[in-house]
Design goal:
This protein has 176 residues and is an alpha+beta fold. It has a single domain, classed as Clam (outer membrane lipoprotein receptor (LolB), chain A), CATH 2.50.20. Helices cover 15% and strands 47% of the residues. It has an 11-stranded antiparallel β-sheet, with helices on one face. It is globular. The N and C termini lie far apart (55 Å).
Length: 176
């Protein structure tokens, strides 16, 4: 009985930790993004009942992809690390916002890869004018609309299944 209580407490404490491995769909290979660079982005997120701003930092290195989200006070909200097909999420602060993190990660790829880079994968990418739609098994998961000049550094991303829209403005991009 005492060992059962210790095991139960260990499991509960493990669940309370903020780091977890996220089950995500099969992702493209990080190397498709080209090494090595870092970008910062301002994100305006709209969901069913609210709007909020976050900053993101994306770093692509030989080790993989890291996406850091910062809240409006520039505190680290969460970090997504992709190494191969493994994605580890570390939530630094509690929030009532629930973003579709697996789709957010896929949107990074949709934004930075061309349609040809998705060929031979489980994903379908349809390009029509300034829009790209990422689908799987005929179901649209993400639509990315590029804005015309002078706002060409901003894209609008829609997640129809999650009913979330995100305007993403790239504020800097540097080679590492």
């Amino acid at each position: 009985m005492r060992y059962s209580l210790i095991i139960l407490l260990s499991l509960l404490m493990g669940c309370a930790h903020s780091t977890r491995v996220e089950e995500v769909p099969i992702l493209p290979d990080v190397s498709a993004l080209g090494c090595c660079w870092q970008a910062t982005e301002a994100m305006h997120i709209r969901d069913a009942g609210s709007e909020f701003e976050v900053m993101s930092v994306i770093a692509v290195t030989n080790d993989g992809l890291t996406l850091i989200l910062l809240d409006p006070l520039q505190r680290r909200w969460l970090t997504l690390n992709q190494r191969g097909q493994d994605v580890v999420i570390d939530r630094a602060i509690d929030t009532d916002k629930d973003l579709p993190l697996n789709l957010l990660l896929l949107a990074v790829y949709l934004k930075h890869l061309g349609a040809i880079d998705w060929e031979g994968s489980i994903w379908e990418v349809e390009v029509s004018g300034s829009s790209k739609i990422l689908s799987q098994n005929g179901k649209a998961l993400i639509r990315l609309d590029s804005r015309p000049a002078p706002e060409e550094d901003t894209v609008d991303i829609y997640y129809p299944t999650a009913k979330i829209a995100v305007a993403v403005k790239t504020t800097s991009r540097v080679t590492l």
